[in-house]
Specification:
Blueprint (H helix, E strand, L loop, with lengths): L2 H37 L5 H24 L6 H4 L4 H35 L12 H4 L1 H29 L1
Helix pairs in contact: 1-2, 2-6, 4-6
Pfam families: DctQ
Subcellular location: Cell inner membrane
Family: Belongs to the TRAP transporter small permease family.
């Protein structure tokens, strides 16, 4: 795989994953509605898949928003501060993001370990429950990485403005 493809995958992983998840969710919902309309029966498992995919979608979407700087967060305050204070806000906001999502990932990993030890299965499809729970630590780590990237980017922009 060449460098350009790897770069595109790194920069658009969340969007690609979200698009795929939305496609799968839409197809499953469409199939369920069609079957229910034609036969008066429904696929009970579709709700399990769609709810679990929604958790992945939410966390991956959050990571994409962090990467693009689309979270409002402290932006309202940030743009009104002088450059030295902006750096303090950048560091504090990054520390908060890392704490919150680090904690979420930490406890998500414990939950996965418990689900593996107890061999917990999902209700409808009876797949290992940890596959669904994996969204929490995976998404949390992805959000933390994207938050660090965005903070570094904003810090560099402040450096460039300071040199002018």
């Amino acid at each position: 795989m060449n460098r350009r493809v790897f770069s595109w995958l790194w920069n658009h992983f969340e969007e690609a994953a979200c698009a795929l998840l939305l496609l799968v969710m839409a197809l499953i919902a469409f199939a369920n509605v069609t079957i229910r309309y034609l036969t008066n029966y429904s696929f009970a498992f579709t709700e399990e898949v769609e709810v679990s995919a929604l958790v992945y979608l939410t966390l991956f979407g959050g990571a994409a928003a962090f990467r693009r700087g689309l979270h409002l967060g402290l932006h309202f305050v940030y743009v009104r501060l002088p450059p030295p204070a902006r750096r303090v806000v950048l560091v504090l906001s990054l520390a908060l993001v890392l704490f919150v999502f680090g904690t979420l990932a930490y406890y998500g990993i414990f939950q996965i370990r418990d689900e593996m030890d107890l061999e917990t299965l999902s209700e409808a499809l009876e797949v290992p429950q940890w596959i669904y729970t994996l969204a929490v630590p995976l998404g949390s780590v992805l959000i933390a990485v994207r938050a660090v990237e965005r903070t570094v980017q904003l810090w560099a922009q402040q450096e460039m403005k300071g040199k002018r």
